[in-house]
């Protein structure tokens, strides 16, 4: 599609807004940017998969400023985009104001709950997946010390950390878990240098497996662990391929599936709260040719057993955000 | 003797600079395989052809007017205030504290309170660099830049640890109470059957910015203090000889400059976000430098330049929405305009001056 056609299409859509809708889905990335090898990129992957399978097209925008959040939502809604998918909790405030103005448009927000009749809120049970990779970290560790590096210090990331610690302790109650957060601002999502420094500090304290739940910062963590010859655990997307044989596994948060499903159901998007966990394939650990040599039969059997127990509800992993505290340290 | 007529200096130079920036931008857009003409049309259409587009353009312009005026005032005393960013951030803090902790009955009173709060905090943040410059000779460019980072860290600390809304993951204050919300252009100009400025953030603080323009003009060209500021700017030794205190002028000018930058927060923090967020300025403090340069430090010029940059910001957003031009390239286009109008000013001016001189010599003969 050339620019001119697109432009005409947009103009026509604006003219027609309220009437016949184009029903082209739209995807809004958060300030972190589309290619963060993690959260936003997973969303992009899901949208692309939908586009390839359906032959449809979708609109997308990477935001430049805070004021554009509302602007992008309104402009896409007025142009007839439906559904409109956005990644990240930071949209919560704006969406709760915008959604009532466009009752015929469906919105999907990831990582946040917005209570409106035309909004689908997708939240993930990150603590369950973190529990699984925590078990694997404890089994792979020889020193009995493992690390966790979070991005921005928010309850969501503490939820990752808490699940991870529970998993580690389930395998080895005497293990030590070193926890660090990269920062307290959104800049912490994209600071690979600091991620690398924190990793070195943790290695200095004896950690030999490090779990990064830090968006773009994780790239630095994975690089450093690979350089120093220890293992790392990726997050959100399957990051095993980044350093084959050096990444133990990745805690996969299937943001791509969430985006894919939202776009696939189109205007029939089911609204309400959608919890993605191990039971419905929204959360998993990654196993592929890049880490096959690192995961032995015993480890796989133990993790899969835990996975089945979590799915059936037999094993409850504590969710940090349910009471803002963690039973395991 | 003047090298070229006033109109050429005020109009022709910026226009030629803009034209060159536009040509280079077009080449850049063409090089990535998009149509520059359509892109430009899209920018104009999105920023100027719809009332909501104007709403965004004027919203951004309001920010740039305040920061542009801040830089201009300081520049008349030949003080280069690079700290608009930090002063506006602290201004945001002042506005937030006023809005959150004083129970305002109505927005008309709240905007006065918030303006005073923003101005005082902005001015206070400019005071330390001003004092260091006046008394210790620490260059104001260096200190104001450093104060930007300190401002960012202060705001970061306060938002994360003190002011954050309970149970929120976003480092931001709670929403300001309803009574402090400023009327937007939509509230002011829409009639029952036609809704104008729908969903756009432009608000009543645009008029505050216009007042600020008039105020700066009166201050610089119609008051004794303004005369002293200009005299000091032209020659500090002559000013000293005439009994103008360098310390006083430096500090007072920087305080006014900081207050103007702080006022920007009325637009962003009280008008748009209605809460204090972590990055309330989004670079407007730095854009203010380009606006002041392009506007020749005159309020009218600043106003026009701010409108242009508002257009670039809103047009850039439209490009990001409807084309495949990546956001990094939109920043490149904006940067080209700043480069040509701000930094490469002499590239256009000098040949033009020579041209006019040659022309005059011919006439004189």
Automatic annotation (TrEMBL), chain A:
Q: Which GO terms describe its cellular component?
A: plasma membrane
Show which residues constitute the signal peptide.
1-23
Protein's membrane topology: Lipid-anchor
**Localization per Swiss-Prot or TrEMBL:** Cell membrane
Q: Which domain of life is it from?
A: Bacteria
* Pfam families in the record: Bmp (PF02608)
ABC transporter substrate-binding protein PnrA-like domain ranges (all copies): 29-317
Q: Does the keyword Coiled coil apply?
A: no
| Major localisation | membrane
Q: Which InterPro entries match?
A: BMP_lipoprotein, Peripla_BP_I, PnrA-like
Keyword Lipoprotein carried by entry? yes
- Which keywords appear in this protein's UniProt record, sorted alphabetically? Cell membrane, Lipoprotein, Membrane, Signal
By sequence similarity, the record places it as follows:
Belongs to the BMP lipoprotein family.
Stated name of the protein: BMP family ABC transporter substrate-binding protein
Organism in which the protein naturally occurs: Marimonas arenosa
Q: What is the lineage of its organism?
A: Bacteria, Pseudomonadati, Pseudomonadota, Alphaproteobacteria, Rhodobacterales
Automatic annotation (TrEMBL), chain B:
Query: What Gene Ontology molecular function terms does this protein carry?
Result: transmembrane transporter activity
Kindly give the membrane topology term recorded for this protein.
Multi-pass membrane protein
Its Gene Ontology cellular component terms are:
plasma membrane
Which superkingdom heads the taxonomic lineage of this protein's source? Bacteria
Q: Known InterPro entries for this protein?
A: ABC_transp_permease (IPR001851)
Tell me the keywords, alphabetical order.
Answer: Cell membrane, Membrane, Transmembrane, Transmembrane helix
State what protein this is by name.
ABC transporter permease
Q: What is the lineage of its organism?
A: Bacteria, Pseudomonadati, Pseudomonadota, Alphaproteobacteria, Rhodobacterales
């Amino acid at each position: 599609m050339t620019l001119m056609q697109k432009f005409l299409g947009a103009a026509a859509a604006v003219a027609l807004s309220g009437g016949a809708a184009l029903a082209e889905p739209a995807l809004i990335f958060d300030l972190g940017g589309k290619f963060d090898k993690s959260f936003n990129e997973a969303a992009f992957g899901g949208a692309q998969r939908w586009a390839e399978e359906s032959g449809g097209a979708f609109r997308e925008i990477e935001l430049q400023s805070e004021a554009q959040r509302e602007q992008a939502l309104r402009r896409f809604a007025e142009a007839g985009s439906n559904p409109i998918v956005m990644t990240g909790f930071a949209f919560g405030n704006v969406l709760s104001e915008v959604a009532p103005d466009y009752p015929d448009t469906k919105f999907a927000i990831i990582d946040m709950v917005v209570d409106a009749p035309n909004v689908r809120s997708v939240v993930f049970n990150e603590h369950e997946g973190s529990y699984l990779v925590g078990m694997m970290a404890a089994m792979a560790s020889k020193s009995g010390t493992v690390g966790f590096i979070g991005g921005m210090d928010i309850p969501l990331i503490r939820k990752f950390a808490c699940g991870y610690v529970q998993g580690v302790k389930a395998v080895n109650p005497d293990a030590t878990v070193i926890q660090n957060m990269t920062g307290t601002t959104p800049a912490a999502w994209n600071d690979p240098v600091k991620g690398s420094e924190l990793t070195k500090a943790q290695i200095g304290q004896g950690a030999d497996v490090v779990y990064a739940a830090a968006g773009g910062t994780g790239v630095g963590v994975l690089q450093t662990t690979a350089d120093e010859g220890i293992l790392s655990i990726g997050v959100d997307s399957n990051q095993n391929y980044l350093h084959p044989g050096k990444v133990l596994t990745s805690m996969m948060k299937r943001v791509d599936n969430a985006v894919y499903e939202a776009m696939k159901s189109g205007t029939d998007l089911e609204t309400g709260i959608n919890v993605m966990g191990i039971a419905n394939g929204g959360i998993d650990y990654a196993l592929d040719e890049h880490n096959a040599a690192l995961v032995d039969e015993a480890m796989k059997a133990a993790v899969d057993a835990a996975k089945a127990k979590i799915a059936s509800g037999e094993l409850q992993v504590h969710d940090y955000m349910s009471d803002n505290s963690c039973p395991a340290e | 003797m003047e090298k070229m007529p006033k109109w050429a200096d005020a109009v022709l130079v910026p226009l030629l600079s803009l034209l060159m920036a536009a040509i280079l931008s077009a080449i850049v857009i063409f090089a990535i395989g998009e149509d520059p003409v359509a892109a430009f049309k899209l920018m104009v259409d999105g920023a100027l052809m719809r009332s909501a587009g104007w709403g965004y353009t004027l919203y951004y312009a309001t920010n740039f007017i305040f920061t542009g005026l801040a830089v201009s005032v300081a520049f008349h005393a030949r003080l280069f205030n690079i700290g608009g960013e930090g002063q506006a951030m602290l201004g945001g803090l002042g506005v937030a504290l006023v809005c959150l902790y004083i129970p305002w009955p109505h927005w008309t009173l709240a905007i006065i309170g918030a303006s005073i709060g923003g101005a005082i905090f902005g001015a206070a943040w400019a005071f330390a660099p001003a004092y260091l410059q006046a008394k210790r000779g620490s260059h104001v460019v260096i200190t104001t830049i450093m104060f930007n980072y300190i401002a960012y860290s202060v705001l970061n600390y306060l938002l994360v640890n003190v002011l954050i809304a309970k149970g929120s993951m976003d480092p931001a204050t709670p929403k300001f109470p309803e009574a402090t919300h400023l009327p937007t252009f939509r509230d002011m100009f829409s009639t029952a059957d036609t809704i104008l400025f729908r969903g756009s953030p432009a608000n009543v603080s645009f008029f505050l910015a216009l007042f600020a323009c008039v105020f700066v003009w009166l201050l610089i060209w119609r008051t004794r203090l303004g005369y002293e500021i200009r005299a000091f700017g032209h020659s500090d030794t002559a000013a000293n000889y005439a009994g103008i205190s360098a310390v006083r002028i430096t500090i007072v000018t920087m305080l006014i400059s900081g207050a103007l930058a702080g006022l920007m927060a009325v637009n962003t923090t009280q008008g748009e976000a209605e809460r204090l967020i972590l990055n309330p300025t989004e670079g407007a403090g730095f854009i203010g430098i380009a606006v002041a340069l392009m506007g020749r430090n005159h309020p009218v010029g600043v106003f026009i330049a701010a409108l242009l940059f508002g257009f670039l910001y809103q047009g850039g957003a439209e490009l990001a929405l409807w084309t495949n031009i990546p956001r990094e390239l939109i920043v490149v286009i904006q940067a080209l305009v700043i480069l040509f109008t701000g930094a490469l000013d002499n590239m256009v001016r000098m040949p033009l001056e020579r041209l006019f001189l040659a022309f005059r010599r011919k006439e004189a003969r």
